[in-house]
Specification:
The radius of gyration is 20 Å and the shape is elongated. It is built from five helices and four strands. The protein is an alpha+beta fold and 162 residues long. A hairpin with a 6-residue loop joins strand 2 and strand 3. The protein folds into two domains: 41 residues, Winged helix-like DNA-binding domain superfamily/Winged helix DNA-binding domain (Arc Repressor Mutant, subunit A), CATH 1.10.10; 80 residues, Lrp/AsnC effector binding domain/regulation of amino acid metabolism (RAM) domain (Alpha-Beta Plaits, 2-Layer Sandwich), CATH 3.30.70.920.
Amino acid sequence: MRPLDSVDRKILRMLQANARTSNVDIARRLGLAPSAILERIRKLERNRVIRGYEARIDPHVFHVGLVAFIYVRADERVGATAVGEALARIEEVQEVHHIAGEDCYLVKVRAADTESLGKLLRERFGAIRAIKSTRTTVVFTTVKETARLALGRPTAEEGLDA
């Protein structure tokens, strides 16, 4: 894969800000042909720089406003990720991170309330035999939550409107 140039970075900044920005709008803002933008985006997708697109849905609409982070300690050999893969298959699980330290995984879940969270831990996490223990932290308020990457400030070459 070739290194990303300033046009690729501008495209990525625009798509991170609004993934529904049209190729025509991106092309107009960058002074390029829509076909050139389409080809660049397709290359970024093929090279897995862009891994996908998804709608961000308000969790309260679906009554899953409770966020919890769960530290999971598992009995599996070093480097194994079977427990993490099993955790990732649980629908309420939004993130699974294999971590260093005493715990093996850090898992982000959403649930309706503490009762639902308890049931999730007992029934779904508890069904994974290799899990030895969990520690749960419940979130009171989320100040920031994003999947955006810090792409750095635009360079002089990229221009201030990037």
